[in-house]
């Protein structure tokens, strides 16, 4: 039986080039929080970029927000949103939180490339599920020239891979922090801002399957006394 391999790489990027169209809501009682999510396929190609916006609201409020979105979706209720140009408007029926998602047509600050080899030969990710042998997963991250701003130079990437130790043994991941999470081995990397990164994980695998890889873009702040 063929087992599931990772279908996508999930990326969370707090990236200003993605926030260029954002503005504060029309009422002053609530600050806006915004997180940018991107879905990547198992080779690292971006398949979708989304902004999730949230507001603390009261019944009767009208939230007016601005962003460059190709589509919007109310994540709190089934009530429709008004979307015209770069303006999004929502009428609030209940106290609490309002969340909405905007689909974006924009670039991430990072170019991500994932390649896989099995027993020394490159293999497509869609063919890897259920295979056995000596596996190498190579992750390369570089600056995206299509993204303006200094976010590649200011944001670190937290990368997390999780391997099932029932399927992967003799795991080698130079530069990673390893932790045991139940029967899984969690590998964590911090890729520093401003430079390209190239990391490789190797393991002997049996009937291989794995979950999605996570990449989180975070502003690098070191609390060091110099």
What does this structure look like?
This protein has one helix spanning 151-154; strands spanning 8-13, 32-41, 46-57, 62-66, 71-74, 82-84, 87-91, 96-104, 110-118, 121-122, 133-143, 155-164, 168-172, 177-181, 184-191, 197-205, 214-219. Helices cover 2% and strands 53% of the residues. It is built from one helix and 17 strands. Mean pLDDT is 86; it is low at 1-29. The radius of gyration is 20 Å and the shape is elongated. With 226 residues, the protein is mainly β. It starts with 7 loop residues before the first strand and ends in a 7-residue tail after the last strand.
Keywords:
226 residues, mainly beta, nine-stranded mixed beta sheet, five-stranded antiparallel beta sheet, 1 helix, 17 strands, 53% strand, elongated
Question: Brief description of this entry?
Answer:
This protein has 226 residues and is mainly beta. The chain has one helix spanning 151-154; strands at 8-13, 32-41, 46-57, 62-66, 71-74, 82-84, 87-91, 96-104, 110-118, 121-122, 133-143, 155-164, 168-172, 177-181, 184-191, 197-205, 214-219.
Helix proportion: under 10%
Q: What gross morphology would you assign?
A: elongated
SS content category: mainly beta
Number of helices: 1
């Amino acid at each position: 039986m063929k087992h599931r391999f990772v279908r996508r790489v999930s990326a969370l990027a707090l990236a200003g080039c993605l926030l260029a169209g954002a503005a504060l809501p029309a009422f002053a009682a609530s600050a806006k929080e915004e997180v940018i999510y991107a879905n990547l396929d198992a080779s690292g190609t971006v398949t979708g970029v989304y902004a999730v916006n949230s507001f603390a609201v009261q019944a009767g409020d009208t939230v007016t927000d601005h962003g460059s979105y190709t589509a919007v979706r109310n994540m709190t209720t089934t009530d429709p949103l008004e979307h015209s140009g770069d303006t999004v408007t929502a009428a609030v029926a209940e106290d609490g939180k309002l969340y909405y998602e905007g689909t974006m047509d924009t670039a991430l600050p990072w170019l991500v490339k994932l390649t896989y080899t099995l027993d020394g030969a490159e293999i497509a990710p869609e063919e890897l599920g259920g295979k056995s042998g000596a596996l190498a997963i190579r992750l390369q991250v570089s600056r995206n020239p299509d993204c303006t701003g200094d976010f590649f130079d200011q944001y670190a990437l937290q990368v997390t891979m999780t391997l099932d130790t029932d399927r992967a043994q003799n795991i080698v991941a130079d530069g990673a922090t390893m932790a045991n999470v139940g029967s899984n081995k969690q590998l964590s990397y911090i890729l520093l801002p401003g430079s390209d990164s190239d990391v490789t994980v190797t393991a002997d695998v049996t009937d291989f399957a794995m979950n999605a890889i996570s990449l989180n873009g975070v502003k690098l702040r070191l609390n060091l006394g110099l």
